[in-house]
């Protein structure tokens, strides 16, 4: 049986900034795969700010998300 693992996105293991300073993706690595939190700032666009980094035509992440106001 696996033990309990505690990680926080407030202390990410990796941070990937988006092009043009329009947001970032913060990641922690778990046994089942990475878990991330994305922050999108006003004016960001996939085609301009993320696609050049991801090198895909669209987002490949699972379509599950929550949102909260910045601040």
Sketch the major β-sheet: 3 strands, antiparallel
Share of helical residues: 10-25%
Structural class assignment: alpha+beta
Q: Strand arrangement, largest sheet?
A: 1-2-3
User: What is the number of beta strands?
Assistant: 3
- Mean of the pLDDT scores? 85
Radius of gyration: 14 Å
Anisotropy-based shape: globular
**Fraction in beta strands:** 25-35%
Low-confidence stretches: none
The number of helical segments is: 1
How far is it from the N-terminal to the C-terminal residue, by CA? 39 Å
**SSE run:** EEEH
Mind explaining what this structure looks like?
- The chain is α+β, with helices and mostly antiparallel strands.
- The model has no long low-confidence stretch (mean pLDDT 85).
- Helices cover 13% and strands 28% of the residues.
- The chain has one helix and three strands, in the order E-E-E-H.
- It is globular, with a radius of gyration of 14 Å.
- It has one helix spanning 46-54; strands spanning 14-17, 23-30, 33-40.
- The protein has a three-stranded antiparallel beta sheet with strand order 1-2-3, with no helix packed on it.
Give the gist of this structure.
The chain contains 1 helix and 3 strands.
Give me the secondary-structure topology:
Layout: E1 14-17, E2 23-30, E3 33-40, H1 46-54
Antiparallel strand pairs: 1-2, 2-3
Summary keywords:
71 residues; alpha+beta; three-stranded antiparallel beta sheet; 3 strands; 13% helix
